[in-house]
């Protein structure tokens, strides 16, 4: 099993944190993992993306040229990655910041009004974790439990107060994806 995902959005949306959490969860499960971050010229507000691969076998390259899965947080990222997607791949979109439909008919699309869900949870800062939870439920690169454990490692010290809401966000994203999958 090898699962790769591109996570893309604006700097400051938690793109890298989502990738790091996924990579940490894979590592904790004893899998091979790569995490390849890429930033635009500005860190906050510029473009940011990362490629994460989780595999049962050694990984040949950390670069994902034709994504089978993508977590897309904004319109410029959809414009960039939609043409690259593999046929029958899955795109998990933050519908709040993407005002158009996906043009391709040969990919699966899960649109989540992630900002609305995040507001109901109590913080718009957890949009990334909602989308990550949905991805984990759909593609199953790691268990949801491993994602929660990885969050516990990353959200320590002053960030510890954010742990509970991030765990709830991952769970909510997973729940939305289960409904999308029909169960």
Walkthrough of the structure:
The chain is of the alpha/beta class and 183 residues long. It starts with a strand and ends with a helix. It has a 6-stranded mixed sheet, with helices on both faces. It has one domain (2-181): 3-Layer(aba) Sandwich (Pyruvate-ferredoxin Oxidoreductase, domain 3). Helix 3 (114-121) packs across helix 4 and helix 5 packs antiparallel against helix 6. The radius of gyration is 15 Å and the shape is globular. The mean pLDDT is 93. It contains 6 helices and 6 strands. Helix 2 (75-81) links the parallel strand 4 and strand 5 (90-94). It has helices spanning 15-28, 75-81, 114-121, 127-139, 144-154, 163-181, and strands at 2-10, 32-39, 47-55, 69-72, 90-94, 108-112.
Looking at how many chains there are and whether they match, the oligomeric state comes to single chain
Q: What is the topology, as strand order, of the major beta sheet? A: 2-3-1-4-5-6
Helix content: 25-40%
CATH topology type: Pyruvate-ferredoxin Oxidoreductase, domain 3
Number of strands: 6
Can you tell me the CATH superfamily?
Pyruvate-ferredoxin oxidoreductase, PFOR, domain III
Shape: globular
- Please tell me the overall pLDDT: 93
**Number of helical segments with 4 or more residues:** 6
Task: Enumerate the spans where pLDDT stays under 50 for 5 or more consecutive residues.
Answer: none
Tell me the span between the first and last alpha carbons: 23 Å
Please report the first level of CATH classification, the CATH class: Alpha Beta
InterPro entries: 2-oxoglutarate_synth_KorC, PorC_KorC, Pyrv/ketoisovalerate_OxRed_cat, Pyrv_flavodox_OxRed_cen
GO molecular function, one term: 2-oxoglutarate synthase activity
Organism: Caldisericum exile (strain DSM 21853 / NBRC 104410 / AZM16c01)
Keywords: Oxidoreductase
